[in-house]
Amino acid sequence: MSSTEQSPSPPLPNRSAEVRRDAIFDRWVLISPARARRPSDFKSHSPASSSASGNRNPKPSCAFCAGREGECAPEIFRVPPSSSADWKIRVIENLYPALRRDAEPPDPSDDLAAAGTGRCAVTGFGFHDVVIETPDHSVHLPDLSPEEVGEVLLAYKQRIFQLARLGSIKYVQVFKNYGASAGASMAHSHSQIMGLPLVPPLVSSRLDSMKKFYDMTGKCSLCEVQSEDILVCDTVHFFAIVPFAASYPFEVWIVPRDHTAHFHEIDHEKAVDLGGLLKLILQKLSKQLNDPPYNLMIQTAPFDLSTSCAPYTHWFLQILPHLNVIGGFEIGSGCFINPVFPEDAAKILREVDCSK
């Protein structure tokens, strides 16, 4: 790890509200510390572990646990692949999928991006999978070793490659909901993968925004995003920041140093490196913020990415702790209110010691 984790920082300054532009997602964020207590006092009022701690069963169990595989939807693959060995990771179909893999794919001649302003509907074709990250009900992602977290990331990669070969899938969203208020319906540590027959609008607008920056500067916006005041920690291959215009308090992005468009281009060495950094960031968030619910997303590129888009397309991993409530202003305007300055959040997370 870089020395940034241990280096002393000056006291947090008093700040006036600012309106900042997020150059990646092309949106405005109101940084308004007057709406909050001290940044270091931020804690989750509904820790994700609270529901589990209320379970009096000393050995809680569910359908995702080892020995209850028959209660789940069909398995796609497992790690290790041998059926005779104890599994570490299972990738299965979602028992309640948002999209149907047995539906008819949209006609390739249909340009869904140019559907016009009228009504447009296609069959709900797609893939919705679950990645069971551990056979142990009481173990969560940051409890795993860097190598084990890396294996989870490589399982994502393997499934993305499988979906890419189908041709009918245009974009894959990998995400993890941790805690009931963040959307998790199962306490057992897991994440999800959705293969879509279209490129979501938020992905298109993200790429358009990154293109604008590239057209103005000749540089990739994510290659240029790192600065000492928003850096949390870094490794050989990745760095973690609280983005300059973070939409959520204590939002963290983990960005690869190498300019790479697609997450599934990651190799084993980088997966283990990312696994260690992701583990550390989740530990810091849990320790500082009282184990908050969070959403984790891999922001990658569509499969059919033009070579002309490569210079400004850069994947990253985004973590959004749930510490405040999204209200009517945010929903109506598309502008977010963040009560914690990103520089202050980064400083606080830098100084969280997870070595004990």
UniProtKB/TrEMBL annotation:
Record's keyword annotation contains Zinc: yes
Annotated binding of Zn(2+), by residue: 62, 65, 137, 188
Keywords: Carbohydrate metabolism, Metal-binding, Nucleotidyltransferase, Transferase, Zinc
GO biological process terms, semicolon-separated: galactose metabolic process; positive regulation of cellular response to phosphate starvation
Cofactor mode of binding and number, as noted: Binds 1 zinc ion per subunit.
Region of interest called Disordered, as start-end residue ranges on this chain: 36-59
Record-annotated Galactose-1-phosphate uridyl transferase N-terminal domain positions: 18-200
Cofactor(s) required, per the database record: Zn(2+)
Entry annotation: catalytic residues: 190 (tele-ump-histidine intermediate)
Molecular function terms, GO-annotated: ADP binding; nucleotidyltransferase activity; UDP-glucose:hexose-1-phosphate uridylyltransferase activity; zinc ion binding
PANTHER family, A to Z: ADP-GLUCOSE PHOSPHORYLASE
Name under which the protein is recorded: (wild Malaysian banana) hypothetical protein
Biological source species: Musa acuminata subsp. malaccensis (Wild banana)
